[in-house]
Amino acid sequence: MAEVAEFSAQAFHPSLPKGRSSGTLRVFDHGLVFSSGAHTVTLPLSGLQLQLGGAGNRLIFCTHPALPDWQLYTTDHALLKAPALAAHPALRVIGSQRRQHHAGFWGLLLGGMAALALCALLVWWSLDGLSAMAARRIPAAWETKLGSTVMAQYRLDHDFLNEKEAAALLKPLTAPLAAAITDKKYPLHFYIVNDPAINAFALPGGYMVINSGLILRAERADELQGVLGHELSHVTGQHGLRAIIRSTGIYLVAQTLMGDASGLLAALANAGPLLLNQKYSRDFERDADARGYALLRRAGINPQGMVDFFQVVLAEQKKQMEKIKDDKARQAMQTAQEFIGSHPETAERIATLQKKLKKEPKTRWRDDQAAFLALQERVRQFVSEGEKQPAPDQAQNNRKDVTPKAGDGTATGENAQ
Question: Is residue 113 part of a domain?
Fold first, then answer.
């Protein structure tokens, strides 16, 4: 009996614990078999679809039209050399993708006047500028769909506050910000998740997750609104989308600028895992600070709250640093944060914003403290309720259907505006 090729792989499917699972992928003459504990699925070779994706095309995605809810992927390119796949039509697609990827740079150099014009643009604009231009060519509806898909994956593994409660509690705090946005491309969706980390993050298409830890750590409404203004600026600046576009390489960016966005859209379709784990560049963080500050002013919200909450973050960073007893290890950590941290140095951001505050005229700012305290009290209760619930794995097993439904969860949607 011939030896069966076996590879490490990952799978996404609502029936899996937390919506995803690691396992093994074996190649038989009849199909690809993924196994993980009690879960096994077979993708028949007939009709099997293979596609490269991720940064540098390092991932191989395996799907089948007959099982549309299953998505498998592996980083082991030896899969493509398995004997059972030797004559499979899907390898022609992979080959075409590889040839396109390797030929991209040379195609630009030899592409005639269009390539020369692009080279001239590269002199004047950075890749970041080109990615911003490419992002503006992505339809808003497609960007919203991307954010919705990634959000659905994230929600499988986390506990969110009820949609109606979140909408009612957040609206007094988020509505002024939403109204002050000048380019309203898509409705905004705010989620509150039970997570003690002092954090919030945004996804393309207007999706934002606010951790319970952030809400409970803030002391004033304008502190929370300062964070929301910053995150909303990541959305309106398309920072998440631009970061993914930059990772696809210059060829697809150039192709999009020349009017063909099909290649870029195909690459972005597999960007879900990258979006959930990405960190913004320092330039994007500084841009979000500046945009967020301006947004707060237009909304009539005191930008001092943004600065004060950065002070909270700075204090938390120092607290964590003090836990490192070894002086050399602490110094090494500080150096690493300075040079490879995704956020600019917190003290630097505070100093930059404080310079702006000194120039602010005396203004009567909004007072949303009552709404903030009501939100904080409900979130405190929400966290307490979560501590009494079964562990996530047990709760997941008790659910009959873990597939997210439209309108289910905590998205406040247009109600927040």
Answer: no
The range of the structural domain enclosing residue 198 comes to 140-416
Is the same domain home to 20 and 169? no
9 contacts 23 by C-beta, under 8 angstroms: yes
Q: Please check whether residues 65 and 183 belong to one and the same domain.
A: no
pLDDT at position 327: 60
Please tell me whether residues 240 and 316 are part of one structural domain.
Answer: yes
pTM of the model as a whole: 0.59
Q: With DSSP H G I counted as helix, E B as strand and the rest as coil, what are the percentages for the chain, rounded to 5?
A: 55, 15, 30
| CA–CA dist 389, 393 (Å, integer) | 11
pLDDT for 214 equals 95
Count of domains forming the chain: 2
Q: E strand or H helix at 236, and its extent?
A: helix 221-236
Which stretches within 66-198 are classed as H helix?
A: 90-109, 113-124, 127-136, 140-155, 163-180
pLDDT digits (tens, 9 = 90+) for 264-297: 666 665 665 666 666 777 788 888 999 999 999 9
For residue 50, the 8-state DSSP code is E
Quick check: is 128 in a domain?
A: no
The pLDDT tens digits of the residues spanning 75-91 come to: 998 888 888 888 888 88
Residue 44 pairs in a beta bridge with 31
Query: Are 199 and 214 in contact, with CB atoms under 8 Å apart?
Result: yes
Amino acid identity of residue 100, one-letter, is: Q
Residue 162 lies in a domain: yes
Q: How far apart are CA 202 and CA 240, in angstroms?
A: 8
Cβ(158)–Cβ(177) under 8 Å?
A: no
**Start-to-end C-alpha separation, the chain:** 64
Q: Measure the CA–CA gap between 16 and 404, rounded to whole angstroms.
A: 14
Cβ of 355: how many Cβ atoms within 10 Å?
Answer: 9
**Residues 350-368, mean pLDDT to the nearest whole number:** 89
Kindly state whether residues 153 and 217 are assigned to the same domain.
Answer: yes
Q: Is residue 146 part of a domain?
A: yes
Q: What integer pLDDT is reported at residue 416 of this predicted model?
A: 45
The answer on 367 and 265 residing in a single domain is yes
